[in-house]
Amino acid sequence: VTVDVMPLQDLGNGSRIYIALANKSYSYTGGTNGETSFKHIFRKMLPASNGAFVANLQTNQTQTFNASYTFTVSSVPSQMDNNFWNSDFEVIVWVQKSSSKEVWNATIAEEGTLGIEDGDSDEFGLIVYPNPADDNTVVMFDGQGNEDVVIDVYNSLGQVVLSENRNNLQGRQRIGLNTTDLESGMYMVRVRQGDKLASSQLMIAR
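User: That's the sequence. What structure does it adopt?
Assistant: Structure tokens below.
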């Protein structure tokens, strides 16, 4: 696992990074309560349960963290081991302030792509911050042509709840979105320019 942490503001010392490995899903019929389908099953923390110290987070200065783990696929892993049911796994990463336990940001990697829905690709270097957000968030990306840019925010039902259209955007962009009217919950931010597409999750928390 390789994680690049690039702060969008100075956060100084006092943060830790946590990496969690989980099975996306598995089926098990040997239980006693009738439940047979399970999703997002945590199996292992990297490098350990207390994470790793992140030194001196400064604006636009990237820090890279590497961790590795060789897991065993077992038909019935037990509570006290770190085995996986299958090789269909995901990686969850978050950076957390040590003193208050506030999470600065978090993301999930599925099939090797951070923050992107299955089948999509990030061709813009898309970043959404702050995330979680309250009344405002910023969508940052690389404009790559003369075609119009469409920024859509989808709710969990797939409905567009917020949309912005901009034209002739080239170079690094920072577009502010007013999220005051959005209820708390998980949303998907999608950026399109011509045939290029990127998407990222956004959490609204109040």
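The first strand starts at residue 2 and ends at 5.
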